[in-house]
Structures are given as C-alpha cells and as structure tokens.
Amino acid sequence: MLAANPGSRPLAGGQSLLNVLKHRAAEVEAVIDISRLEELRGIEGDGSGGIEIGAACSYDQIAGSGAVAAAHPKVAEVADGLVDQQVRCRGTIGGNACFNDPGSNYPPLLVAMEATMRVTGPGGDRKVAAGDFFQDTYRVDLGPGELLRSIVLAPAGDATVGYSSLQMASDSWAVARAVARIRCNGTIAEPRVVIGCVSGAQPRAAAVEQAVDGAEPSAEAITAAAARVDEGIEPGGDAHASGAYRRKMATVMVERALTEATERARGDDG
Known about the structure:
Elements: E1 8-11, H1 17-22, E2 30-33, E3 43-45, E4 51-54, H2 59-63, H3 66-71, H4 73-80, H5 85-90, H6 93-99, H7 106-112, E5 116-121, E6 124-129, H8 130-133, E7 134-136, E8 139-140, E9 147-153, E10 159-167, E11 174-184, E12 188-196, H9 206-212, H10 219-226, H11 243-266
Parallel strand pairs: 1-2
Antiparallel strand pairs: 3-4, 4-9, 5-6, 5-9, 7-8, 10-11, 11-12
C-alpha cells in the first residue's frame, strides 16, 4: 500500500504524525494504519543478550518488558520516563525513530548503542546502521514504499550507558540531551558520545570521545572531556533556548551521561 501510494504515510501511534497534520505542517495523500500488524509488535531475545524490538512496540510495552530490561535496561528506562501514561500507551519506538525530530528521545540512544535498523519494502529486507539511518532533521534512510520493521540491539557485554536530558518540564521536549556508552575496566574504552537536540543527524561528540578514551573514570577526567563538546556542533536557537544556552547545557548533559555510565560500570547505579 505504501508503494502504491507515493504520497502516503504510515500511522502507528500517531503521537507525531497527527500533530504534523493538525498544524498543516505537511500534507499526505493517504494515511495507512499499521498499528495492528503483529509482525511489527514483537520483542524477541536471541539467547545471548541481544534483542529485536518491533517498530510498532509501544513505549509502555517496552517499559514493561522483562526481556528488554534484562538485555538493555536503559532502553526500558527511557520508555518508562517518556511524557505521560497516555502517550506511552500509544507512542511507538519506530515512530519516535522515523520522525527523527532533533528532540526525539530514542535516535541518540540508538546511535550510541550501535543499533541496527531493519527495513522492509518492495525490494525485500535490508539492514542499516543507526548512525546511517538518521540522516537529518525529519529525514531517515527509508526509500519509497519502505517501512522500519524492527530495531536490533547486539548483546551489551560489559558496555554501560548513561543518558541525560534537560527538559522544559517533565512532560515536554528536551532542550539538551546526551547519551554515552562506554566500556570500563580500569580505564574508559570504546566511548560513544551522542548529542541530542542539535540536529536530526544525531552527531557524535568526537572531541569528547577522543579526550575520554583511555582516561581513568574520575570526575576530573570526565569534566575535562565534557568541556570539549562544543567542538564540531552548532546548536540552533528557538523559542525555548538560545544556541549558546544549548551549547552550555550540552556540556552539562555530556558530563552527567558519562558519569552515569562510569557509575554503572562500577555497579554504583543502585
């Protein structure tokens, strides 16, 4: 149906699409309801700590999944803290990813965790690394007639994740966000630090990663690395925050995310 209607859009939870249509920010020729396709709603573990989450899984479903919590607890924690219960019951992880607003919760997390996006369409299935899937604001790597089918997360192993957001209110969009994934066995290794609320490309903070790679997980080292977050990012301003304020808060969010990741590596997360 998507292929036969080039101007169509899929409807899963509708938490983003309906607002876009209501405000006449876009027009579509057809809305295709995919919310009851069971093939998109499953959560399956691979037996080794990896997990595949259907794109139409609701936030509530993910938050309550023991399989997700065991394999990748941060994915479940983010879902459990999203907006309010009504939205959590309808909004979907695939919709959050495909909308790809700079303030979307999941894209920076999926990039940091090196998720694989499983796409299906008229030409069959293909797999796209999350870092390539998120192209720009409101743009993702989906061709005509294609649909995000699921999100695959490899086993975490000894990697830990920190996630920090600054929101205008508990049920509103964030103005700054950072995600950090590290391995830590005496020193920090293989860091991936992704900045949210800057652009839909979900930029990695390369200078921060370079500064923290091989460093001891001390507060001083983390603070020094976080101070380099403004190298390579150009936050824009809007009605909620100036670019300068976002840049400053990105530094704070990176420091908090790295601190959380190191605390989890030490088992200090409670």
